[in-house]
Specification:
Blueprint (H helix, E strand, L loop, with lengths): L1 H7 E2 L2 E2 H21 L3 H6 L3 E11 L2 E2 H4 L7 E4 L2 E20 L5 E23 L2 E4 L2 E2 L5 E5 L4 E11 L2
Antiparallel strand pairs: 1-2, 3-7, 3-11, 4-7, 5-6, 6-7, 7-8, 8-9, 10-11
């Protein structure tokens, strides 16, 4: 009978007492974080808000689709706007190789698809070593989505610049 009592107690403190104290600490932290507007968790996790300029290159799309991207469009995530907007859009031709009537290789522009070089500015969260906007890690070379009111397209991050 003595072995069961020693199993549930650590010295003079009951193991369930420790669980209740830890639960109370977690609840107190949650309330404090909620009252600070999430700033307490950001401070503990060493997160900072910084302004960034991101340049992305789209996958090949029709020129009609790319013409829907306008300067000033706000970026969105999960049906809510995020603090970022498009500042520059440049439609670029895509070079393709074709054969002419003689069978020679000819390089020319793709008549059907174009790419867009898009620059947007916004507020990113910096948590060492990553900058993120919404749920997207801003790492040059990464593939991500560019979502606005009117479209959702795949882009490659080409450049990241800290504005501040």
């Amino acid at each position: 009978m003595e072995s069961k009592k020693s199993f549930l107690k650590i010295g003079k403190i009951h193991i369930f007492d420790i669980a209740i104290v830890l639960l109370l600490i977690a609840v107190a932290f949650g309330i404090a974080n909620k009252m600070s507007g999430g700033e307490l968790a950001k401070t503990i996790m060493n997160e900072k808000e910084v302004r960034v300029r991101v340049t992305v290159l789209t996958e090949p799309y029709s020129e009609y689709l790319l013409s829907g991207i306008k300067t000033g469009d706000r970026l969105a995530e999960a049906k809510t706007y995020i603090d970022a907007s498009i500042t520059k859009v440049e439609i670029l031709p895509i070079q393709i190789s074709l054969t002419d009537n003689n069978g020679d290789l000819v390089i020319g522009e793709d008549p059907f698809n174009k790419q867009a070089l898009i620059t947007y500015e916004g507020t990113a969260t910096y948590k060492e070593p990553l900058y993120t906007i919404s749920n997207s890690d801003l790492v040059p070379g990464n593939k991500t989505f560019l979502i606005t009111d009117t479209l959702n397209i795949v882009v490659w991050i080409k450049d990241l610049e800290i504005i501040e």
